UniProtKB/TrEMBL annotation:
InterPro entries: Ald_DH/histidinol_DH (IPR016161), Ald_DH_C (IPR016163), Ald_DH_CS_GLU (IPR029510), Ald_DH_N (IPR016162), Aldehyde_DH_dom (IPR015590), ALDH7A1-like (IPR044638). The keyword Oxidoreductase applies. This is aldehyde dehydrogenase (NAD(+)). The lineage of its organism: Bacteria, Pseudomonadati, Pseudomonadota, Gammaproteobacteria, Candidatus Competibacteraceae. PROSITE patterns: ALDEHYDE_DEHYDR_GLU.
């Protein structure tokens, strides 16, 4: 299907995609997909005003009815899964299976949110006072601002959006300036759901097209009750204090530097498959990408040799072609960051296998395809401790399991982690309070490819936020503790007597 036909099938009319100053390029061949008109600060302000007004009405709509809107949105996503997946591939460069997988993740979170719309439960609490009852209620929070990264251009927004809408909030979304078309397509699909839903306030979902300055506007606007920001630790370091300065809430989903420990009892066949998907999938551009391998010394050489063979069999190519496992890096900056990291690793004593640029589409000078790199490192150096958003896997050895866990935790980030072992003691130690310090800790599966049912996020420089499943919905609501006195007395808590004999 031609690009214009694909965009039209998602409700994006070619005429509205031209003439603006924000050039949208495809990492597949560097071609221009659109030139969009960015929002001015005044237009962004008007969008936030609309969202604030929408919230005031939407919070009164019963939650199960709000869930119906997300059910309809999920149906639109099902009907347009292939097209939206293809647009993710075109704009972010993911292979087709992963592009469609991202849309499936959106469908899954919609299903989850529909069920949740009937389960926004609060506790009842035993009161210490006679004739009193205590409970907590969960109320809608307000406008939720979402800032998203290029590498999950739609799924991460949907984790926030589906929950926020059933929780009674409105949403203003500032997608990555590298992937605005998928955001506009999502908005069109949501408008289709709205048309079938019937009356709903205008401004429930707003999309802001533009760069960092629009993100900053969302960050600083006191009407934005929750700012959910996904991206680099650099971005989080700027955003976190600014939201805190106005006493807003921030939910930060930042960089990872995820490791797998491979122990002597590991099923190596399983480990190689898990490592491969984690390290080279999405061309190493997932927050949960496996970036460090901590291997028992007795297995080190064998595992490295097996991985080198497995890497050689992975096809780097056009992400739209079947058989391709590794598509392009997002842009020239990503490529140069990868090359700098490899040079630095070499200088620190690393032995590098792979990492070279590959020409996939003849003449496409502004497209960056690479062989994924394996780097045998003598130690966990400064370069290894840094997240380079590219397919580089640093391989290190250990001799004692406690030493492996210490090495594992000795980086600033804390997103995802895994151990391959068949030793119950090691597995449980890894998951224990003294084990992995990450938000995600796995046994005998890799670091990437999380399901929506669990809460997603990480510790330390990853930002501490949790999104998606479990009780992550609580971030999108405000909690009120209620005490009701149905007696004729007014006893005080802690047995305090005030002005009585
Ligand atoms: P990025 O930080 O460059 O940009 C992310 C978003 O933040 C963009 O929309 C950008 O416009 C905006 N932004 C940047 N600086 C800002 C500022 N000062 N104020 C307001 N907004 C600002 O990240 P990227 O290159 O798009 O994505 C890759 C990074 O995202 C990696 O570090 C990756 O690990 C991380 N990531 C984390 C998760 C997670 O859930 N933890 C998920 C996906 C990606």
């Amino acid at each position: 299907m031609k690009t214009t036909e694909l965009l039209a099938s998602l409700g994006l009319d070619a005429a509205t995609l031209d003439g603006g100053s924000l050039r949208v390029r495809s990492p597949i061949d560097g071609s221009t997909l659109a030139c969009l008109q960015p929002h001015t600060p005044a237009a962004a302000d008007a969008a936030i005003t609309r969202a604030a007004a929408a919230f005031r009405d939407w919070r009164r709509v019963p939650a199960p009815r709000r869930g119906e809107l997300i059910r309809l949105f999920g149906e639109e996503l099902r009907a347009h899964k292939q097209a939206l997946g293809a647009l993710v591939t075109l704009e972010a460069g993911k292979i087709s299976a992963e592009g469609e997988g991202e849309v499936q993740e959106m469908i899954d979170i919609c299903d989850f949110a529909v069920g949740l719309s009937r389960q926004l439960y609060g506790l009842t609490i035993a009161s210490e006072r006679p004739g009193h009852r205590m409970m907590e209620t969960w109320h809608p929070l307000g406008v939720v601002g979402v800032i998203s990264a290029f590498n999950f251009p739609v799924a991460v927004w949907s984790w926030n959006f589906a929950l926020a809408i059933v929780c009674g909030d409105s949403v203003v979304w500032k997608p990555s300036e590298k992937t605005p078309l998928t955001a506009l397509a999502c908005q069109k699909l949501f408008e289709r759901a709205l048309a079938r839903f019937g009356a709903a306030p205008a401004g429930l979902s707003e999309v802001l097209i533009g760069g960092v300055e629009l993100g900053e506007q969302l960050v600083d606007d006191a009407r934005v009750a929750l700012l959910s920001a996904t991206g680099s630790t650099r971005m989080g370091r700027a955003v976190g204090p600014r939201v805190a300065a106005r006493f807003g809430r921030a939910l930060l989903e930042l960089g990872g530097n995820n490791a797998i420990i491979v122990a002597p009892s590991a099923d190596l066949e399983l480990a190689v498959r898990g490592i491969l998907f984690g390290a080279v999938g999405t061309a190493g551009q997932r927050c949960t990408t496996t970036r460090r391998l901590i291997v028992h010394a007795s297995l080190h050489d064998e595992l490295l040799a097996r991985l080198r063979r497995a890497y050689a069999s992975c096809r780097v190519g056009d992400p739209r072609s079947s058989g391709t496992l590794i598509g392009p890096l997002i842009d020239a900056a990503a490529f140069s960051a990868m090359q700098s990291a490899l040079s630095a690793a070499r200088a620190e004593g690393g032995e590098v296998f792979g990492g070279e640029r590959v020409e996939v589409i003849a003449g496409a000078g502004d497209a960056y395809y690479v062989q994924p790199a394996l780097v045998a490192m003598p130690a966990q150096t400064a370069t290894v401790c840094h997240e380079t958003f590219a397919p580089i896997l640093y391989v290190m050895r250990y001799s004692d399991f406690e030493e492996a866990v210490a090495l594992h935790n000795a980086v600033p980030q804390g997103l995802s982690s895994a151990v391959f072992t068949n030793d119950l003691r090691e597995a449980e130690a890894f998951l224990s309070a003294a084990g992995s310090d990450c938000g995600i800790a796995n046994v005998n599966i890799g670091t990437s490819g999380a399901e929506i049912g669990g809460a997603f996020g990480g510790e330390k420089e990853t930002g501490g936020g949790r999104e998606s499943g479990s009780d992550a919905w609580k971030s999108y609501m405000r909690r009120a503790t209620n005490t009701i006195n149905y007696s004729r007395e007014l006893p005080l808590a802690q047995g305090i007597r005030f002005g009585e004999d």
